[in-house]
Specification:
heterotetramer, A alpha+beta, B alpha+beta, C alpha/beta, A: alpha+beta, seven-stranded mixed sheet, 28 strands, about 25% strand, C: alpha/beta, Rossmann fold, two-stranded antiparallel ribbon, 5 helices, binds adenosine-5'-diphosphate, binds magnesium ion
Chain lengths: ~725, ~80, ~220, ~80
């Protein structure tokens, strides 16, 4: 049989990242040596990216169920119930490595990929978010990476016509060699037309739609181990180029097809393209699948079976149809001028069988690909516990000087230069987006009074200092941001960016961060419904700071009640909710003003977090507050300054009689909110907080046109605004 | 002296622009169009007269700015 | 009396335009596919924003050669109202229903922001509900909004009252701060800002309400 | 047969991309750059062998789609 042509060797398997045990399992299951095509398929299916072999057992610790959950992890994206027969479908994913190699296309295709995960389930994408981590601004590559990544994200999302509503951007030398580009997509579907990937039933036609297949993004190792000949240069793996125009047509065509009764299962072709999409659909459906590779629309000539199976060409989908629906489906894609081809059918064999030029080039049982997939319990060591920094030991400084410096520090400076390149309003349902003076973006559910709030968060400083507390904090901050926008937090997706899991210290970060996330998700009733793991983010033995990004979604029943931090007016009293101890360990102040990246991060009392959040929600719903802002990087002073700038009104904050200025104004104790209330409402509100068991303290007043911290020099709003706005454009234009 | 830099997508790299152009031409009745690729031309006026040196410098400009060699090829021609 | 919104592959503000027309002109709105060759009986044809054909080659170029455009041209010639917003404006210049061209923004970046505009001519079917020489604010969201025409053409536009909207703070390098123009007959308008995104206080600005109010009057 | 269409901004038309390229090159130390203009190249593969006819057809493609003569000039070269 031709399957036995081109047998693979263990050395080739090794070159593709498989170890001796994994090779042994393949031999045993096949009862023979795999050929090159089969080896390629095993190698990608059992890669870290597809098999989650280092992370699977730990991810299981995350809570994934809850009253709102319709579909948790395991499908293309998570699905939650938002009432009225509607569902919200969302997920976050990384495109780190491709974005470092080719920032524009890497970031663009990251956005394209995450949108496909969402619309493949039947949702119309309604919002995009992006969480970006770049190296130090001084690193020679940083500027070009920022410029390319931002242009790529905008270039793709703007063209497809889905608003990019929020994100976060950090700079740190720890990302010099490995930037992080994480994209999140949120979509809305009718609950009775959600599509899954299980291709149940044999004899159903398999339809390929979208762009043609080229040699894009085929695993470098595969090509490196291929025979060397004159064509090697021409065949070398090519960077994936995104085509948002095709994506847009694919969205419209797929959503149109979903209105018919044609689809058994549908899946986008993401990592490992045709291989993983076909195997996952067959595996979940408990069937086999036969594909005729000659029918696959091809962009290039002389593609080999393994090249076609591993190609990561973008903007492609695989659909299993009900028999007899072939022409109805094909007509829709033809009208949208997309490539479409019937390339095979599901079978009863339980095998994946591939035909190419009259030969059978692959015949492997599907179940073992999943059942026998490696699942490692990698050794890990508990991260060291860092000392708690005593705020009293930090030299007193001028808080006004510190504030002025912090508002223009790379992490705190306005990211307007970025988000003005994103269409934030297309679809005409964006209530609050980047720059909209809200802790979460808010997007109305089309033609209803409801809205979804969404936010992405992680504080890598904290996670590096203490992965467990840092994991908790990422979840809690996301929850807090949703609360502050007036939403009821519903569920999260995550994107876990770490270094090499084969190093016990890195594995320790991973394990403990998940423990922390799991605890916070459980305590806050904030289940994880989808996510993505990106490991091996390291260069020359140096790993990135551990960065588990949390993307949360919440629901606002009446869009008109969405809250922000720009509504404070002169005369309002500022009340600080939550407990303040003046925690400076691992704070932005300690890093940016004192130049020290030290100490344990602030701990979180999740019970208290929940109580405080519920009180804030009650106050917002009761119409008792003009503005709400959670306290995060830079503490009280930075939150109050945000409020002042957004409200175009000065603020006077009182000093503390027990804490130093640094600790009081810049400490980063968790679980806190700053609220602006009418003067006459203060006493009642303080009582209400006391009854709810939440610390509350009057800390200042909105007035004038300066920000005043205790006895320090007043800082004019205009000056603060100018410094805050100028840093990034000045940095980017200094090419 | 004048240098003309011609930048085109590397072979094998997807060229959505070229595809769209070919599709549109066919729709307009230009059936003989088999395919199209779209590239860039950058014409530089240079205050330097030594062809040898100019070529070397423009090569550098291409590598450092004008072309994205991950996805593009370039060629240079010099005119007096 | 009613309106048609043309949908090209890559249009992405078609739904926004349909909703704004429906909610703020009280007219019925048809969506018309770019491959169609006939328009339904309508008073107004709107070419929406987006990235028709990915904006490949030039913004609006390929869409301008779509089969429906012959019918749009005929409608314009008969004196019917035509509005092109953003990508629609680009399509209208590529079709030569409007003079000039829209080039890459001077800053070379896509720009999405609120822009203050001056109403230069309130005596048009598109602007009658605005104050003449008053100001409003409508957001832009484009990469190619830098209006170009030769000096003679620009002088003619000025002289004939064809400049309808001007930027107060030119964001994209447009000649003479042009944000929107009409044809000589005054029945075809192209503008880069998106009035359909500025009709609801919940989503931000309301500078587009008077635009749709003007249209409602013109179609009555 | 292959046709190469070279499209450049008309003289007198602002060319923001070309200006940006020249500015960036100077900033990078390529002081000899006096100016830059950026244009497009479209390479067409055509299933037709008569050079005369091809040239005429491509001329039409340019006029009808490939170039916007309000702002662009074009030139055509044919390769066998
Ligand atoms: N990459 C980005 N894309 C879009 N918006 C961004 C990006 N980076 C930052 N922003 C926006 O800048 C504002 C400030 O961000 P951030 O400091 O992370 O907020 P917070 O600390 O309140 O969570 C937010 O409105 C956020 O959405
Ligand atoms: Mg916040």
């Amino acid at each position: 049989m031709s399957m036995q042509k081109d047998p693979a060797s263990f050395e080739q398997a090794q070159a593709l990242g498989l170890n001796e045990d994994e090779w042994g399992v393949i031999l045993k299951r096949l009862g023979r040596t795999p050929n090159q095509t089969e080896l390629g398929i095993f190698s990608v299916m059992w890669s870290e990216h597809c098999s989650y072999k280092s992370s699977r057992r730990h991810l299981r610790k995350l809570p994934t169920t809850g009253a709102c959950v319709i579909c948790g992890p395991g499908e293309n994206a998570g699905v939650i119930d938002i009432g009225d027969g509607l569902a919200c479908i969302f997920k976050m994913e990384s495109h780190n490595h491709p974005s470092y190699i080719e920032p524009y296309q890497g970031a663009a295709t990251g956005v394209g990929g995450i949108m496909r995960d969402v619309f493949t389930m039947g949702a119309r994408p309604v919002a995009l978010l992006n969480a970006l981590r770049f190296g130090s601004p001084d690193h020679p590559k940083t500027r070009a990476l920022v410029s390319g990544v931002v242009a790529g994200i905008g270039g793709y999302g703007n063209c497809v016509g889905v608003p990019t509503v929020s994100g976060e951007t950090n700079f740190h030398a720890g990302y010099d060699g490995n930037i992080l580009v994480n994209a999140m997509c949120v979509g809305i579907a009718e609950q009775d037309s959600i599509f899954y990937s299980a291709a149940k039933g044999a004899g159903n036609p398999v339809l390929y739609v979208g762009a043609k297949t080229g040699r894009d993004g085929i695993h470098g190792a595969t090509m490196a181990s291929a025979e060397f000949d004159d064509e090697t240069e021409a065949k070398r793996p090519t960077v994936q180029v995104g085509d948002p125009f095709t994506e847009k047509r694919l969205i419209e065509a797929c959503l149109e097809l979903m209105q018919t009764n044609c689809i058994v299962a549908i899946q986008d072709m993401g990592a490992a393209g045709l291989t993983s999409s076909s195997i996952e659909m067959a595996d979940k459906g408990g069937v086999g699948i036969d594909l005729d590779l000659d029918k696959v629309p091809q962009r290039e000539t002389h593609m080999t079976p393994v090249e076609m199976m591993l190609s990561e060409s973008q903007e492609r989908m695989l659909i299993v149809l009900r028999p007899g629906k072939e022409s109805e489906a094909q007509e829709i894609f033809e009208r949208w001028e997309l490539d479409v081809a019937l390339i095979g059918k599901t079978t009863e064999t339980g095998h994946m069988v591939l035909h190419h030029k009259g030969e059978t080039v692959c015949d492997i049982p599907i179940a073992p690909l999943g059942d026998d997939a490696p699942n490692y319990d990698r050794p890990w060591v508990a991260p060291p516990t860092l000392p708690v920094i005593n705020a009293g030991e930090i030299a007193p400084g001028d808080p006004a000087k510190a504030l002025l410096s912090m508002v223009q520090s790379p992490d705190m400076a306005s990211k307007r230069w970025i988000w003005e390149q994103y269409d934030r309003h297309v679809m005409a349902d964006t209530l609050k987006a980047s720059g909209g003076a809200s802790d979460a973006a808010v997007v109305r559910v089309h033609d209803t009074n409801k809205a979804l709030a969404m936010s992405s968060d992680c504080t890598p400083r904290y996670v590096l200092a203490d992965p467990y507390e840092g994991g908790k904090q990422a979840v809690a901050e996301c929850w807090r941001n949703l609360i502050a926008s007036g939403a009821s937090p519903m569920a999260v997706t995550d994107c876990l960016n770490f270094g090499n899991p084969e190093r016990p210290d890195i594995m320790g970060q991973f394990v403990r961060a998940i423990d922390g996330m799991a605890e916070a998700c459980r305590a806050l009733d904030f289940p994880v419904v989808s996510g993505n793991v990106s490991l091996y983010n390291e260069t020359a033995g140096t790993a990135i700071p551990p960065t588990p990004v949390i993307g949360g979604v919440g629901l606002i029943d009446d869009a008109a009640t969405a809250m922000g931090f720009g509504g404070a007016v002169a005369g309002d009293t500022l009340i600080l909710l939550g407990e303040t101890t003046g925690w400076l360990g691992a704070s932005l102040y300690l890093r940016d003003i004192e130049g020290r990246e030290e100490g344990a991060p602030p701990p979180i009392d999740l019970e208290q977090e929940r109580r405080t959040g519920m009180l804030v929600r009650t106050l917002i719903h009761g119409g008792q507050v003009h503005a709400v802002h959670d306290l995060s990087d830079g503490g009280l002073a930075c939150a109050a300054t945000d409020m002042a700038l957004a409200s175009r009104c000065g603020v006077h904050l009182m000093a503390s009689d027990t804490l130093s200025d640094a600790a009081w104004f810049f400490g980063e104790d968790q679980g806190r909110y700053l609220i602006a209330v009418k003067k006459g409402a203060v006493d009642a509100l303080l009582d209400q907080a006391q009854q709810a068991g939440v610390g509350a303290k009057v800390v200042g007043t909105m007035k004038g046109l300066d920000v005043v911290l205790g006895d320090a020099m007043p800082l004019a709003l205009d000056l603060l605004s100018q410094k805050h706005e100028n840093w990034l454009p000045a940095y980017m234009e200094d090419a | 002296m004048k240098a003309i830099v011609h930048i085109r997508p590397r072979s094998g790299v997807l060229d959505p622009q070229g595809q769209a152009v070919a599709g549109a031409l066919k729709h307009m009745g230009f059936d003989e169009v088999l395919s199209a690729r779209q590239g860039k031309i950058i014409e530089l006026e240079l205050g330097d007269d030594d062809e040898q040196a100019v070529r070397q410098r423009v090569q550098k400009m291409c590598e450092h700015l004008l072309a994205n060699t991950v996805i593009e090829d370039f060629s240079i021609s010099i005119e007096p | 009396m009613n309106a048609a919104v043309i949908v090209f592959p890559g249009s992405n503000c078609d739904r926004d335009a349909v909703c704004a027309l429906r909610d703020h002109t009280a007219k019925s709105v048809h969506r018309v596919w770019h491959r169609d060759t006939d328009l339904p009986k309508v008073d107004l044809v709107l070419l929406p924003g987006g990235f028709s054909y990915g904006d490949y080659l030039r913004s609006g170029a390929i869409a301008a050669r779509s089969p429906i455009m012959a019918a749009v041209q005929a409608h314009a010639k008969r004196g019917g109202l035509v509005v092109g917003i953003c990508n629609g404006f680009q399509i209208l210049t590529e079709t030569h229903l409007l003079p000039g061209a829209l080039m890459r923004n001077a800053g070379l970046k896509f720009l999405c922001k609120s822009t203050p505009l001056r109403i230069e001519n309130a005596d048009t079917p598109f602007t009658s509900a605005y104050d003449d020489h008053g100001e409003t604010a409508i957001p832009i969201a484009h990469h190619d909004g830098n209006y170009f025409a030769d000096e003679d053409t620009l002088d003619r536009l000025e002289g004939q009252g064809q400049i309808v909207f001007r930027y107060v703070n030119n964001p994209n390098g447009s000649s003479r701060d042009i944000a929107g123009i009409t044809n000589k007959a005054g029945n075809v308008l192209g503008m880069m800002p998106h009035p359909e995104r500025a009709v609801d206080p919940l989503t931000g600005e309301t500078g587009g309400l008077a635009f749709f109010k003007s249209l409602a009057g013109a179609m009555a």
